[in-house]
Design brief:
467 residues; mainly alpha
Length: 467
């Protein structure tokens, strides 16, 4: 068995990246599994945060849920920039343009610094105002402001972690990326109860402790990811002199990064708007919505892990002009993503009450949450195709279609529909906005996929069938 493996590796062209030669089905699985695992661990530490904070009080949990859109906005900008780096760097490697790949890495690090400074300033100036626009409950405002200021002022940890992990992912080193993400997540889970409840003689810091645990974990993961890039990532060369702005490289990164960031930021706007609708009924509705989002991550994160590997695979093979490998990667990813979403759909339908018990629910939360979970999760059936489609567009150098699809689904359709349903059918009707909006997303994604196939993929020269 070892001899066969050696023969396969020896048959690869010298200097060729595995993304251009490994059988596509095996490539997707081997690159995706580490990313899926790391994403699941990431979802777990978000869940653990919420579980511990929910033990403080329902208002503390509501404060964390209200902070989520702002925190998600910060993640959106940094991940969007990272996706732009990912697509440009992988495509440059596929085209054998080493100089541009190295410059993409250096310019990406410069953009990470800019992002962290921006969010530190916004966090200092606007955190309290942000909560005052959502609620007049003083305790929620105080707890939420304290949490949000810490995670934004110290956002340099997240910016560095995302950037260095994307450099690893861009060159196919998913296992190393998984190690750094897992380290950060596990460290956060260890620190959470220690800092929140004051174990081992430390003072109990409550919600502030959750924020500090998050920041320490992100900084630690960032340091490890940097070490991996320097010591083990031979596909790119990190140089201090390359950490500077280059107009052309920034333009290429932002061409994919801005639409991706906007697409994710639209989610922040949607959550913020839906929170404002839900608070008119009861704070328990916001707690239910916050619980849903933490659990939803366990369904979507494996798919995001899949698409994290899909972007460099498609970008590399598109840059190398390998049509059959591009098509095979798209088809298999849609199949795998849909299967994951159907599996995730099942517990939301069968055991919604048991899922809610993770968050120390009140009777009101259970009454609201059980039907809400069952209705919202219907959208999972359609979502896998849409997530994969958006990543295909990113890999081909355009984040605009995914942004337009997300804009239509979450702001143009979901929010207005949720408002109308809340006015006419009450709280129980609000949740139906989710599956109805997802259907719109599917229709748009099909249209964009057809366009990109005709314009970008079909003109590629035919090559040997992908395996």
């Amino acid at each position: 068995m070892e001899e066969n493996t050696a023969e396969v590796h020896e048959s690869w062209p010298a200097g060729e990246n595995k993304m251009g030669v490994m059988p596509v089905s095996r490539l997707i699985i081997t690159m995706s599994l580490p990313a899926m695992l790391s994403m699941l661990v990431q979802a777990l530490y978000s869940l653990v945060d919420s579980m511990y904070v929910s033990r403080i009080s329902e208002n503390a949990f509501a404060a964390l849920s209200m902070a989520y859109p702002a925190q998600h906005l910060m993640i959106a900008v940094m991940v969007g920039t990272g996706v732009g780096i990912n697509a440009l760097l992988s495509r440059s490697l596929g085209e054998k343009n080493q100089e541009r790949a190295d410059r993409a890495a250096g310019t990406g690090m410069f953009l990470a610094v800019v992002n962290s400074v921006l969010f530190a300033v916004l966090g200092i100036l606007l955190s309290r105002f942000y909560f005052e626009t959502q609620t007049d409950i003083g305790e929620i405002t105080e707890l939420g402001t304290e949490y949000l200021r810490i995670v934004t002022v110290c956002s340099f940890g997240m910016a560095a972690q995302v950037t260095f992990e994307r450099l690893l992912q861009s060159t196919g080193k998913m296992f190393l990326s998984m190690i750094t993400q897992s380290l950060g997540a596990v460290l956060n889970m260890i620190l959470d109860p220690i800092l929140i409840f004051g174990w081992f003689g430390l003072p109990a810091m409550g919600v502030r402790g959750a924020a500090i645990a998050t920041v320490i974990s992100q900084c630690t993961a960032a340091v490890l990811a940097l070490i991996f890039n320097i010591a083990m990532n031979r596909d790119i060369k990190l140089k201090i002199r390359e950490i500077r702005p280059r107009a052309e490289i920034i333009r290429r990164i932002l061409a994919v990064g801005i639409p991706t960031a906007v697409m994710m930021s639209i989610g922040s706007a949607m959550i913020y708007g839906l929170n404002r609708i839900l608070i008119t009924f009861t704070p328990a509705a916001i707690a239910v919505f916050g619980a849903y989002f933490r659990l939803e991550h366990f369904v979507f994160m494996p798919v995001f892990g899949l698409t994290t590997s899909l972007v460099p695979i498609i970008a590399y093979n598109y840059g190398a002009g390998r049509k059959s490998r591009v098509l095979q990667a798209i088809k298999l990813s849609i199949l795998y993503a849909t299967a994951v979403m159907i599996i995730g759909f099942t517990p939301f339908q069968v055991i919604p009450a048991q899922l809610l018990w993770l968050f120390n629910p009140s009777a009101a939360m259970l009454e609201i949450g059980v039907p809400a979970f069952r209705i919202i999760s219907i959208s999972f059936i359609f979502a896998g195709f849409c997530v994969v489609s958006g990543s295909v567009f990113q890999a081909l150098g355009s984040g605009l279609p995914g942004m337009l699809e997300s804009l239509a689904r979450q702001l143009i359709v979901l929010l207005p529909l949720a408002y109308v349903l809340s006015a006419r059918g009450g709280l129980g009707a609000v949740w139906w906005a989710y599956p109805l909006a997802e259907i719109v997303s599917v229709v748009m994604s099909i249209g964009f996929m057809r366009y990109f196939y005709i314009k970008r993929i079909k003109p590629l020269p035919d090559d040997a069938p992908a395996i």
